[in-house]
Amino acid sequence: MWLISNRIRIPLLTCAWRTFILITILNVSSFSKSNYVRALKHYTKERKLELREQVRGMFQHAYEGYLKYASDYDELRPLTCDGVDTWGSYSLTMIDSLDTLATMGNFTEFRRVAKLLEEKMDFDRDINVSVFETNIRIVGGLLSAHLLSKKAGVELEKGWPCQGPLLRMAEDVAKRLLPAFDTATGMPYGTVNLRYGVPKGETSITCTAGVGTLLVEFGTLSRLTGNTIYEEVALNALHSLWKRRSNIGLFGNHIDVQSGRWTALDSGIGAGVDSLFEYMVKGAILLQRPELLDMFHTARQQIDKYLRHEDWYVWANMNKGQVTLPVFQSLESFWPGILSMIGDRSPAIKTMANYASVWRKYGFLPEFYTITTGEAAANRESYPLRPELVESAMYLYRASKNEFLLELGESMLQTIEHSAKTRCGYATIRNVVTHEKENRMESFFLSETTKYLYLLFDEDNFLHNDAAKGEIIELGASNGGGQCVINTGPYIFNTEAHPIDMSALYCCYDHKQDMFDGLDLQNFSDSTLAKSDYDLNIKDKVESDSHCSRPVNRQPVKRVTRPNAKAGKPQPPQEPSMAVDIEVFDENNKPAGDILVESFERVKNEQITMTRAPPTIDGSQLRNQLTVSDLQDFFAKRREHFKNPQEVLDYTVKFLKNFTLDPSYILSLKLFDKTVTEYLGSATQKEYSSTTKTLWDIYVLKHKYQMNMKLLMTFNLHVLDDFDSKMVEKVLMVLAGDQTDVTNNIIWNKMTELYVEYSKSLTNTTEIQNFLLKILINGSEEKPGNFKALLTDQEIQKLSNEHVDVSQHLKEFSYAKRIVEAEKRVTDTFEQLQKLMADINTKQKGDNKKGGQAIAQTTESKTKADTIKKNPTATDKNNNSPMTNTTSPTASSVGTNLMHSPPTKDNENNSVSVWTHLVDTFLGKSSSQKFKFDAGELLQKTRKSLEQYQSLDINYNLLTCARPRFIEQFAYRYYHP
């Protein structure tokens, strides 16, 4: 609620605003005491500041590493100290880190980066990006940085916060995401091209979170710019998803945004669904929309009924409620924080204790943890430095001041510092049991993990504003003039931890359209406000909100006093610590902590050999995930350990066939030669790194690709610039197995030579050692300079090569064959087009000679040409005879539809001619827009869809009192009564 007086807009700390502070856990005194978990040690103010500065050092080390080695890329690769593009090639980590700089008070660097982005960033790119990731990271990051600009000392534009360069950049990106919402259901596609809209052939299946995680950013953008389309499409998408929940009130994991059909029926609060529930709560607070909070409470009732088991949350079938996956996912760790935001701290701290026990067991949270066995799930043991656990710790600590949460935060800080730190950053933990590293540092480590850790220990940070103070700013004439209050809190964090100043959103209602039309100012008179406050206080005494509190059977607590060590005074009773009681034990009742220590000692001291894998029925070894220890064992082998060269080869090949790499790890190692994609096509990249493969598979593929590339390069068939149709036909004949033409012997000889070279590489143990050394160097911090070859070159040459018949020989060149066949199709098409255009050109020159001059194109002739295109047999009303063409039907249709003029010398430099466009398209040198998109049509369709939701039965008491009318007017401007 706001007081509108003399054009000064300030928040009243009554009614809904007080409730917002309650919901966002800033007014901690309103919560009851927790009896569940207590810390083992006390944290002084000085100790908390020490930990805060350790977090600052952690952020600074990672941030400086990114700037030094990867500032032109999306992310830093911390093991190899270089960069990689992951989400869109727009310096993602730099944008994602911007508000963290402000949070930690580094305003000088904030200003430098903000200026750099303003001068150099351009989102007009022909790249496909994730709608979800681009929204939360880029749009959210730019909006947050825009709203923090004044705090950081940036020179502001006149009219800020309703305009500014970072705000314009955020809207530019959001506009490019809008085509994704142009669907039959209003739910967005998962991918969009920043320049051309939804890519042709894009799948209509996307995850539930991708549909429901837009309202915080898009709502903020609408409130700041006055353009309602962003909030309305996000709200419509959420409502559309909501009405498709199952009969028992659960959401599936993936949905078809065109048909509304669920394609993945597992329901949970983790991956693929998580932030849907987060944005129901945060959207309700930020945008003052109680219907969203009503949705959350309704959804939560079913979550507690079907998914909650002993304060763990499992996965179940969305239609039947039967448990399908009894696992805890690290992404679910946000849930206790959300419960604390709505004031339900008791179940939040219980669940938090469960999650903390997993952290203590491993030192990290695995992506999947099997609740029934108490172990990290196979192939899901990684920890990519996720923030969700410390996020909940920060929220719960703000609510309860329970130092157990500080203790957990300190443990997270120290473990990450100890096991994830590298020379230039912090690495993903590939396996939480062995603490092996993976060569990736996601941008959310700087955006979220370090920020939440910092805020956990920095209790006086400006982002913890409890609305006790604010700042008055002057509004420009374009925004209605007058003054506005900002920085009054609370700050709402989007799911990427980008803080949004809620108070600033109410400064821009007059920007582009008057949001106060129809507002009854008498409702804000002093007498009315005083009476409303009085009625509210009376109501609070006689009833409580059923959503926010439950009857609790309180057991009498025996009061116990103990002497104060310093003052000698009795203190209030202290609940017994339960930190030890939630220790995890295995099936033999042995503490899991001891098991973890033993595991590390085993990895450290034992030499794990190939025999550790139990034999299968046929006597072969089971395939294992490759570890650094395995590679160290391999390089510890010497020639004297083997009887003969064949035994060395057998051991080497067996080693490669025994160990596997998962797809993400294959990709991170950068073993794939980029020129392969250029020569053999993108399908080879997918084949190389899309599935789990043995080391042998990867090694063989690598050399097979090289063999095919060399063949194409030898005969200059790897580029499409210059066509040699005869060579294309000859190579294609050989690749098809035709040996009748002796003139093709040179091609056969080259293929044989390349195949022999390929076969030798499969027996070259030294080359295999080089291959494994690259994996060791790129996949860990190990930097061995060299190795001793197991075999000499002479010994390798004596190893026998397997004989392969001609059909097998040709099969290995399937990649080159595919490329040559494609070139054959292009050359054939090109020759036909050249001939066709030459015929048209000859015909047109003949017509010009007959007429003596070019025929002037009048409006009437244009109309006739259009009629011919639509109906070639149409009748001319003037001569009552069918309109026929003097040229052949084929030439006529092509001449009319493909080109305005033939490719003669007069127009051969015309880059916009249809001929040039056609040639460029065939050569793959240009791309055309996939779909036409009209934002106006989308807005009208969205508003029409929103009509069906205006009659929802909304419990406005969720926010204590009825919200102002202008909130309804914003998104239901034309339809809401």
From TrEMBL:
Main subcellular location of this protein, as a coarse class: endoplasmic reticulum
Annotated keywords: Calcium, Endoplasmic reticulum, Glycoprotein, Glycosidase, Hydrolase, Metal-binding
Cofactor: Ca(2+)
One GO BP: positive regulation of retrograde protein transport, ER to cytosol
Organism: Musca domestica
Database matches in PANTHER family: ER DEGRADATION-ENHANCING ALPHA-MANNOSIDASE-LIKE PROTEIN 2
Family: Belongs to the glycosyl hydrolase 47 family.
Protein's job: Involved in the endoplasmic reticulum-associated degradation (ERAD) pathway that targets misfolded glycoproteins for degradation in an N-glycan-dependent manner. May initiate ERAD by promoting the first mannose trimming step of ERAD substrates, from Man9GlcNAc2 to Man8GlcNAc2. Seems to recognize and bind to exposed hydrophobic regions in target proteins.
Region feature Disordered, mapped onto this chain: 545-577, 843-910
Gene Ontology, cellular component aspect: endoplasmic reticulum quality control compartment; membrane
Protein name: alpha-1,2-Mannosidase
EC number: 3.2.1.-
Pfam families (UniProt xref): Glyco_hydro_47
InterPro entries linked: 6hp_glycosidase-like_sf, EDEM1/2/3, Glyco_hydro_47, Seven-hairpin_glycosidases
Gene of this entry: 101901457
